[in-house]
From TrEMBL:
Pfam families: Mem_trans. Gene3D superfamilies: 1.20.1530.20. One of its GO terms (cellular component) is plasma membrane. The chain crosses the membrane at residues 62-85, 97-118, 124-147, 168-187, 193-212, 249-271, 283-304. The keyword Membrane applies. Keywords: Cell membrane, Membrane, Transmembrane, Transmembrane helix, Transport. One of its GO terms (biological process) is transmembrane transport. It comes from the Bacteria. Belongs to the auxin efflux carrier (TC 2.A.69) family. This is Transporter. It is a multi-pass membrane protein.
Length: 306
């Protein structure tokens, strides 16, 4: 329980700080759109390149982890689609919040918990799984935005165009390309990426807090309930089943389930702002899921250990 509190408290603290800063008008309102743009186009791609380029797969059960991660991610898309069918009045922008709330995951919390619970081996396997997850989640999310916020139909050319010019996709492609090629980034360049990446998380959380409005809980209760059900029940169950089906066991299985048990990513808010989603509903989903995970994560880990 201590590990969970230590991992989640900084997340909530920064959201609260962003809320206070915005309401106190300590910083001009014009700061927040600029901060979001900086995070989206520079800080987030930097951390993706660094994290994906530096993974050494070695003798780990990487293929089984890949099958589990991608299988559970695709299953979460199906769950989101089924939820949308029961709420057909939900507009496209709000649907993107439901999508991100049910598909994305908080990398920071997952890695922190993996290290606290499973040590260095857990941290390595969680980093490997997060790398696989980051790539497919960004492709799926950008595609969802292209369909829901665009023409409302499956426009392959539009989706391809959005994928090609999305900085997060480029971060994933460059990171994986460097990993596969075996090329090492110069120490100075890698150090610069590390520093830029460290800024992405706090700036993103501050922006979430700045956008948070309590009234949005009632206004957007449907995507909140649906995304929480998918995030904290459906995904862990599917991940557990797939881990068993692919032969994962021990720490590898525990890490796979853990990745699909954490709340959604704070960076989902930045993506929502930049791609025309409903950022108000996204901010409240991130906040509610982070609060609920104080209860759901201990329960999931207890069931996993049993």
């Amino acid at each position: 329980m201590v590990a969970i509190v230590n991992a989640l408290t900084p997340v909530l603290a920064l959201i609260l700080l962003g809320f206070i800063i915005k309401r106190s008008e300590f910083i001009p309102n014009s700061f927040w759109p600029s901060a979001e743009k900086l995070t989206y186009y520079l800080l987030m791609p930097a951390t993706l390149i660094h994290s994906l380029a530096g993974k050494d797969i070695g003798s780990s059960p990487w293929f089984n982890i890949l099958l589990t991660i991608w299988g559970a991610a695709l299953a979460s898309v199906v769950f989101v689609g089924l939820s949308w069918l029961t709420h057909r009045r939900m507009g496209g922008p709000v649907f993107t919040s439901l999508f991100q709330g049910g598909v994305r995951f908080n990398t920071f919390v997952a890695l922190a918990l993996a290290e606290s619970l499973f040590g260095k081996e857990g941290l390595f396997l969680a980093s490997l799984g997060a790398g696989f997850m980051i790539l497919i989640v960004n492709v799926l999310t950008v595609s969802a935005f292209s369909v829901a916020v665009g023409s409302g139909g499956l426009d392959v050319r539009r989706i391809s165009r959005d994928l090609m010019r999305n900085p997060l996709i480029w971060g994933c492609v460059l990171g994986i390309g460097l990993n596969i090629s075996g090329l090492k980034l110069p120490v100075a360049l890698d150090g610069s990426l590390v520093l830029l990446g460290k800024a992405a998380f706090p700036v993103g959380l501050l922006a979430v807090g700045a956008a948070y409005q309590a009234g949005n809980i009632v206004r957007h209760w449907q995507p909140i309930v649906a995304s929480c059900g998918i995030q904290f029940f459906c995904k862990p169950v599917v991940a557990w089943w797939l881990a068993a089906a692919t032969g994962l066991s021990g720490v590898a299985a525990g890490v796979a389930v853990l990745i699909f048990s954490v709340p959604t990513a704070p960076t989902a808010y930045i993506l929502s702002r930049q791609m025309g989603g409903d950022h108000d509903s996204m901010a409240v989903i991130i906040t509610i899921q982070t609060c609920l995970s104080f209860v759901t994560l201990p329960l999931t880990l207890w069931l996993l250990s049993s």
